Fold each of these.
Amino acid sequence: MKYGYFDDDNREYVITDPQTPYPWINYLGNEDYFGLISNTSGGYTFYKDAKFRRLTRYRYNNVPVDTGGRYFYINDGGDIWSPGWKPVQRQLDSYECRHGMSYTKITGSVNDLEAETLFFIPGGFHGEIQKVTLRNKSKKVKKVKLFSFLEWCLWNAEDDMNNLQRNYSTGEVEVEDSVIYHKTEYKERRDHYAFYSVNRPINGFDTDRDSFIGLYNGFNNPRNVLNGESSDSIAHGWSPVASHFIEMELQPGEEQSVVFMLGYVEVDKENKWESKGVINKKPARDMISLYDTAEKVDAAFDDLKASWDSLLSSYLVESHDENLNRMVNIWNQYQCMVTFNMSRSASFFETGIGRGMGFRDSNQDLIGFVHQVPERARERILDIAATQFEDGSAYHQYQPLTKRGNDAIGGNFNDDPLWLILSTVSYIKETGDFTILDEMVPFDNDESKAKPHFDHLKASFYHVVNNLGPHGLPLIGRADWNDCLNLNCFSEDPNESFQTTNNKMGKTAESLMIAGLFVLYGKDFVELCKVLGKDEEAAEAQRHIDAMEEAVKKDGWDGEWFLRAYDYYGKKVGSDENEEGKIFIESQGFCTMAEIGKDEGLCEKALDSVKERLDSPYGIVLNNPAFTKYYIEYGEISTYPPGYKENAGIFCHNNPWVMIGETKIGRGDRAFEYYSKIAPAYLEDISELHKMEPYVYCQMIAGKDAYKPGEGKNSWLTGTAAWNYYAVTQYILGVRPEYNGLLIDPCIPTGWKGYKIKRSFRGDTYEITIDNPESLNRGVFSLILDGRKVDGNLIPYAGDGKIHSVQVIMGK
Amino acid sequence: MKYGYFDDDNREYVITDPQTPYPWINYLGNEDYFGLISNTSGGYTFYKDAKFRRLTRYRYNNVPVDTGGRYFYINDGGDIWSPGWKPVQRQLDSYECRHGMSYTKITGSVNDLEAETLFFIPGGFHGEIQKVTLRNKSKKVKKVKLFSFLEWCLWNAEDDMNNLQRNYSTGEVEVEDSVIYHKTEYKERRDHYAFYSVNRPINGFDTDRDSFIGLYNGFNNPRNVLNGESSDSIAHGWSPVASHFIEMELQPGEEQSVVFMLGYVEVDKENKWESKGVINKKPARDMISLYDTAEKVDAAFDDLKASWDSLLSSYLVESHDENLNRMVNIWNQYQCMVTFNMSRSASFFETGIGRGMGFRDSNQDLIGFVHQVPERARERILDIAATQFEDGSAYHQYQPLTKRGNDAIGGNFNDDPLWLILSTVSYIKETGDFTILDEMVPFDNDESKAKPHFDHLKASFYHVVNNLGPHGLPLIGRADWNDCLNLNCFSEDPNESFQTTNNKMGKTAESLMIAGLFVLYGKDFVELCKVLGKDEEAAEAQRHIDAMEEAVKKDGWDGEWFLRAYDYYGKKVGSDENEEGKIFIESQGFCTMAEIGKDEGLCEKALDSVKERLDSPYGIVLNNPAFTKYYIEYGEISTYPPGYKENAGIFCHNNPWVMIGETKIGRGDRAFEYYSKIAPAYLEDISELHKMEPYVYCQMIAGKDAYKPGEGKNSWLTGTAAWNYYAVTQYILGVRPEYNGLLIDPCIPTGWKGYKIKRSFRGDTYEITIDNPESLNRGVFSLILDGRKVDGNLIPYAGDGKIHSVQVIMGK
């Protein structure tokens, strides 16, 4: 069952039923100021940090779901409704929510009155525009009472939830003209406030929640909306809110637009006050004046759309498959930009108060957006590298505001360092900018320990070499990519974190996943050294890679697939010898991407085993059989019920590893089959089961052992976005940046006749047509660049800023 | 305006309007298993620790207020309602909530169907009984559909709110017969589960929230209740709930009772499972069988009442003032017991996830309950003392589960140590048990550092002596009792805690409040030494006390009142020289309780200044004038808006210090005036303004500078309970335990003709009649014990376990 449709021309998903199986959300803002908004206008806003600078309050996991947001109420002659259906939930005559690129437009109508609400944040602006347009489609004059509503968060979102004995006394507001100012704690250490304005005179307002809603009423039936009046209340503590009350008269056929703005202002300490106790409102007035008419708002909205035209223009595919086109050209790139902005902090599953930026996460996310914003990718790489330790290891996360590493969620995850090679190499291949390697980058944020960035990559590489276990395989440390496979943490206390408890750290537990990672990105390191002319460095590194490949083949192969690990006791994990968890996806993915034992057929065997044992109608599960009891020697993975999360769930992040592995042995049909099983556009028809948005990836889909296989969870903030984008664009569609140009290496289903790619690359543009006359999976027969044949399958970088035409014929 | 009335005979407050100005709550349970319940049956339950073992989910600061609880729904032929009005909010024909001693009974009726719901936790039992009685008062047969409902918390209340990407996958239940089992995480590290049972066959059940309520419905209109059916749903992740569905037929005039039980079970690791994946239910079945009939429940309820008869029998007053009687005999003692159990952890303002037991809080709370449960008081004192450091200083809090100190909310509060003298002396005077002083008690929980408890008291005393400032007054450290007067923390960052930031620790800032505290409890220390025959110890201590008194008189007196402190720069705080915060309550309270400069008239002057500058119609404010801007050198106190919390709010905790100070100079009218201004029973008529329960104290009432003076906040968990009980019983009513007996020292309003006290004391009982023929405030003219005149005003302890009659005539 579908709840809407894709409008590709407008780059929108259009929701036509407000009662989606779960709130379907969108993100507003792209730089410092952000908002989350659901299809019924629930959600919240923050400045830079969703924990420390939360502007509006939101309650997760509430009943009903998704309670609290930017709400508009209409009282049309006593008939009360909201354009987004919620919170009032009065049946609408029509409803539509358009989630676009950084904007959302929700329109509802009742009794021939239509209300359109447009939400967006102009580029570089610290405020959210809400344009409300009322249209009287009846033949009578309508006198309408419009109420805006939002609830202020008292800045620190965590304290806001918990420290009520303080918070209930601190709320402070001011109201001047049509602007409501939220100045809680401004008197003291905060040099910032928020405001909510509207571009016309108001008939009243409310700032005290209980006055507006009533203690025992809800968002669905605020007392003042029911009564068609406002209290002009000034909040003193308790819960400050902001509501404008506007009476409007609309002639038959008339349309009126009202512009609201929710803004954030920082003020110099010296200029905080207009007069004693009265805040300096000039910065707010300046912001308001920028968008105080519908025309100015429309112009800003056009600018926003134009900026997305530009951001999304680097890689465009034109194929017979509209789901593929919309994923690659629009939604997957869009999701990559959101994960760049949010990391794992704020979604409808991540509350925004717990997690900083992950070392591992952020390096991987980068492969999904480096082509869109290369200069921001460069900054991100250097920020991450600066938190690394001299021995190559890393804090597992760092804070975006301070850019310093911390061990709040542990350290000593031995895969972490290698991801820095992936991100750096991806950046250089995309941009050709080798100067990043010469940047002086601190270790552990200590400037006195700065070294050229290249040395960080070397430290990453040798961190593995210096931490090998009994089989010559990489020690896993606290965990590798799978945070929940905790081989050195034997925990019996339910209040311990598996990520920070560390009571068995030994020198035994080894990871085959890191082994594959090492061979794969080690080769990248070697290639980079060669490009830089560091041949000895390259040769030395190659010897370690060769040794690792041998170790994997000798002690990492279980007969039909790659082992997952050796545990604390030196026992095999992910072996046919095990009763449960016989096979895991991660080592199959990385060892086949690294092509370990490819010539001996190990890759093909391993991938066939994946197909046989891990594949399901909804994607590839993480392990099989699922764990049905707690294994103290494995840790968190075995705490989940079978089929969920790391315990045999379809952890979408790692599915593209297998897709790429399949392309490495040329099996394009299977690679694309895996792609289309989890790419959300393909799941639109089963939205009732999938539950999550059909336009973005989930972290996890319930696996075949689960109660309801195919049910998605934790949409939006997942490394899945970057990895699937990387897999489909570079390895399936096969247009891949290399140091010297674009490699053309499609690995596609045999049924495809061909497709076109438009690729911007370091200022040039390549219009590539790929034909597949022989119904092959893989193989480039000929490549013609601007009318001239090129040997091999690399389009050499021109560097002339021009448009180049490329004709590719697949063949043997 | 009143919302109910006191039923003193039953020791109940009876609420007759469900829409109280704020949820009015009660506590269930007295030992390990607890529940909070509001007058509309909102609230939650936990085992021992409100953070780590939360059984049911609760959302603080929700809209509507108080959402989530133990709900019963009645579908009576399509008419849907709840006995507690909420959550359905259908208008009831009758409503009554009786909050009693550890139980709550809520009764509602609609259309001649009455539903009575009784909630309590039997003594020592780890389960809550819910007895639902339906009475058909109509003349027709009624077919009623009854639904129970609660929502499970996934044990760790903090994680439950925040870690949704995990929690949404972990929920697991089992259902067998009429019992719903919540076994989330039982598979792994939890050796405990919860259950919800009912003592009759059911027609169906639900354990999946969305199945029962519907994603977009609320607690007020669950889909299955509306439809009169259940889904027999089994939760797999998301939000597990428990709902029984029972169809009942009631003849005209018939009454039926149904017994529900919400229980907690711990299981040995070896006996966790009945069979693979099936939990061991025997312990639950055993619990259920104890109370599986209405008769068994009624017997347990009688036992509970009897236990409160006993707990409340130690001190009974009989006076002309029914508010005084009900406060002293029932509600104040009851609140003291709740603060003993909860400290500051779980109320409707304290979320239960943040705070452990306070060193200072717990010592003070003890003076409110030592007469009720002396053996538990003894244990508490020793637990607290064991967290002390060898130099006398203390962790500011410790965890009740581990009993270890931690510095999560700071340390180095220089008042902390002295409170240990107060609690210990109070304990010995109440019990005569000097053996506590010989108990070997560790420092910093290190058994190797154990010393006799007496040495802890000495360390407390000398911690002040060893930490004096430039004026010979006590250094304040991080803060004294007023956590928000932060004289060594100059904070500019809004994300810093004033309690843990410590960037200016100097040797200048001194506290007059600690000076008073030192003199007062120092004298107790000296007296104790003398009783123990440690005369040299006593003399040495007395010299320090004398010096302190001189220092206060020399540098701590501002002319009309006691200074509050010297700040980091050595400037006066709480002086007429200051522009704001000229006078503070704490130093007036403690210096007058300690009688510093009493002979010179300083106490009288100081207390007159309190009357003139700090008193208000709703109590005594903390300071005056209120701070209107942020003083970085004063810290958090100046962050609050004027009139709230520590910034000139009526912080009720310190009002009794002034009451006692007034009794020290014999002004009984004024002492009692202050008492009756904040004692909640006297505020019943202004409940609309006061908002909070009229049967328990608040932490804070808005002061005269506030927007709404008299508005209460943060009821229940406050040191106010202990201090007011101590002040009214020992210093106003004036029956006070001393080492050798009961001192009779009333200090009452002149208008009182007399009153009676019945006091149990170390096994004896004293029936004391006090007559005031000359309309005095103070003074005992004669005291007749069992017919024989006694010199002075001390009733010597008999120790014969008998009832003794005491006749007291006041006079000069």
Amino acid sequence: MRKVFQAELHQVGEELIEISSLVTEAIEKANQAFTGADVELAQEVIAADARIDFLQNDLDERAIDILALQGPVASDLRMIVGSLRMSASLERMGDLARHVAQLARLRFPAKVIPASLTATFDELATLDIQISRQITELLESRELGLVTDIQSANARINELHRSVFGAISAPDWSETPSTTVDVTLASRYFERFGDHGVSVARKVSYLVTGQWQPESFTN
Amino acid sequence: MRKVFQAELHQVGEELIEISSLVTEAIEKANQAFTGADVELAQEVIAADARIDFLQNDLDERAIDILALQGPVASDLRMIVGSLRMSASLERMGDLARHVAQLARLRFPAKVIPASLTATFDELATLDIQISRQITELLESRELGLVTDIQSANARINELHRSVFGAISAPDWSETPSTTVDVTLASRYFERFGDHGVSVARKVSYLVTGQWQPESFTN
């Protein structure tokens, strides 16, 4: 019985890692579609999001079955409840990657981001991709040094996000209102992605240490 | 034992209602601060969000204790897991009300929204407030007719949200880029608020019927 239970817990952990890998793939491809105005790739990301949603539901049902049938306590219980919450954050990160891809599709064949902000958005995307990869690694290794890396990356994302608004408010901003909207939304999607990443990282940290780390940022 | 357990479940339900009431108060006041450029009221909403966060944590801990100590099954288990998820959505709605208040504070003494969009934003806010009130009512009464009302209100919100982008893209849009950013973000906050409201409503519906209603919208 105990062995079956451990196998089931392990399965939940594996599914979380699978979802996290799919989210990484989604944000990588979404960014390629976004920077390269690649409508087919955008379409692929949009379609693939259904798989992430499916896996999230599957994981959640599995977790609830474990709660019902095994009545886990202490750290096992924390692990199950934590998984339910992490899956929700990961699913939302998948949605945000889809939103980025949808912007690419909407503006095709034009690019969403004006040349003056390309470098900023490249860095935003690179940081989101880094966070997403590190979450997978963190879920696999439980190496808590990664949590700090993820938080630092997110702090930099917040700076970049603010700098985007600075650029838009500057006197030399000469883009159309539509572009201003797209830039605002895209920046917000990348920024939210990082926040959800931090939220997953903090949950892993909580599972490992049993200590709830206070939030060091507001959003 | 059974009696204690029922009292604890009831307590979780009550706390959910309390959070929902605070969220309603937050979105009502945030909107007043937002439309009236009332910086003190904005400040009040921003400060009050900590109470919502505290109550969410408290509810979550209580729910996890019930899972650990009572090992609920079937509909009781569903109710506990559902509460954890609803509290997360309500907490997020509180954050969004805070974001609206933060925009009001940022632009004070100016108003955030230009006169041409006042009516649209009034309607957005009215619908968000309606949704928030109806969620409290739904949590109290489990009257599923309210779910349909909430979904209809959200469909209208999505229309209005799209119309904001239409207004910004129109040739006669002559606002500053900063205003364009504020309008974009504010519209997004009101729109996300409605989505989270639908998400809570669908969870209540699931708890009552045991049937998971497929999502009828994408965001």
